[in-house]
Amino acid sequence: MSELSVSREVSVSPEALWELVTDLDRSPNVISAVTAVERLDDGIGFGVGTRWRETRLIFGNEATEVLEVTEIDPGRSYTVEAESLGAQYRSVISVDPAPGGSMITITFGAESTGTVSKVLAGTIGKLFEGGTRKALVKDLDDIAVVAETEI
């Protein structure tokens, strides 16, 4: 699985930042690319098995995926997975203490699962890497702005 990782310092406590990044219902008001979230579980809490349908703008188009938390280290990190269009996607969001507050990191990876997508991944995948990195940085910037102005 090819991965890329981006990090950003945020001047709020790790506890406050964790609370923000695990509040699914609030995410359309935090991350500008997320246009809608619909919980598919009991709607209570956040942990392994938490599932939701998320609609976001990706490369100028709306895409809707079902996401599920597959691992969690409460207060520190969680892993979300989705499968779509012949690929398995995995994101790890981690929050760590930093001198000025917190460091948030998103590590995103995708692995082709279908024959055609495996062939295309070798060529087209590199073209999307820059755009994906830019989108991840924008997500972190959005989270930081809300954290630093509303918390």
Backbone CA Rg: 15 Å
| Percent of residues in β-strands | over 45%
Helix content: 25-40%
Low-confidence stretches are none
Give me the side-by-side strand order of the main sheet: 1-7-6-5-4-3-2
CATH class: Alpha Beta
Number of domains: 1
Give the helix/strand class: alpha+beta
User: What is the element string, with H for helices and E for strands?
Assistant: EHHEEEEEEH
What is the molecular shape? globular
What does the average pLDDT come to? Answer: 90
CATH topology, by name, is: Alpha-D-Glucose-1,6-Bisphosphate, Chain A, domain 4
Brief synopsis:
The chain is of the alpha+beta class and 151 residues long. Helix content is 32%, strand content 45%.
Looking at this protein, list some descriptive labels.
Alpha-D-Glucose-1,6-Bisphosphate, Chain A, domain 4; globular; 7 strands; 151 residues; seven-stranded antiparallel beta sheet; alpha+beta; 3 helices
Task: Outline the secondary-structure elements.
Blueprint: E1 2-10, H1 14-21, H2 27-30, E2 34-39, E3 51-58, E4 61-73, E5 77-84, E6 87-98, E7 101-112, H3 115-150
Antiparallel strand pairs: 1-7, 2-3, 3-4, 4-5, 5-6, 6-7
Please provide a written account of the structure.
The mean pLDDT is 90. The protein contains 3 helices and 7 strands, in the order βααββββββα. 32% of the residues lie in helices and 45% in strands. A hairpin with a 2-residue loop joins strand 3 and strand 4 (61-73). It has 151 residues and is α+β, with helices and mostly antiparallel strands. The protein has a single domain (2-150), classed as Alpha-D-Glucose-1,6-Bisphosphate, Chain A, domain 4, CATH 3.30.530. The longest helix has 36 residues, at 115-150. Strands 1-7-6-5-4-3-2 form a 7-stranded antiparallel sheet.
